[in-house]
Specification:
Distance between the termini: 50 Å
Radius of gyration: 19 Å
Largest sheet: 4 strands, parallel
Shape: elongated
Mean pLDDT: 86
Order of helices and strands: EHEEHEHEHE
Structural class: alpha/beta
Number of strands: 6
Length: about 150
């Protein structure tokens, strides 16, 4: 729904400013928009646990959102404009997502310890979330390649 009169794309920012990474996300999005030009932003009504539900009634060209459940994925996929998810809570997402390389983070964690000549390692992290398992897998792979042992906690 590009506004023809002024060629401005209307983009919704559907994530809370209280979220830990919000400042970094906003900086990146606004930096990109300044370089590209032609973007106008709408903010989400502030909530601690926002739902992209309000986007159903919003008439714009795209959105950045935090999608945390399979139900939210279905909602976002049904919208008439593209949405970029900004968090990796849901595994195997079928929507565009900008998130962290959790496997790579796990490898970096192990490499940090291996560079300091530790060879008996323990990994402490969440195991009930997919990204925690990915970090453990990266940690274990890097450790195994270096001949170190790992005990997950």
């Amino acid at each position: 729904m590009l506004t023809k009169a002024n060629n401005v794309r209307r983009i919704a920012l559907a994530f809370p400013s209280a979220m830990m990474a919000s400042e970094s996300l906003m900086h990146g999005i606004l930096d990109f928009a300044r370089k590209r030009g032609g973007w106008s932003f709408t903010r989400i009504p502030e909530q601690l646990d926002p739902s992209p539900e309000w986007l159903r009634e919003w008439r714009g060209d795209g959105a950045f959102a935090v999608v945390t459940t399979a139900e939210m994925v279905r909602l976002v996929r049904g919208l008439s404009f593209p949405v970029v998810n900004l968090m990796g809570y849901v595994p195997r997402l079928t929507i565009p997502t900008a998130t962290l390389d959790h496997y790579g983070i796990g490898r970096l964690q192990a490499e940090h310890l291996l560079e300091r000549h530790f060879r008996r390692l323990a990994y402490y992290g969440v195991s009930d979330l997919w990204f925690g398992r990915e970090r453990l897998r990266g940690f274990e792979d890097a450790s195994k390649e270096a001949g170190a042992t790992v005990t997950p906690w």
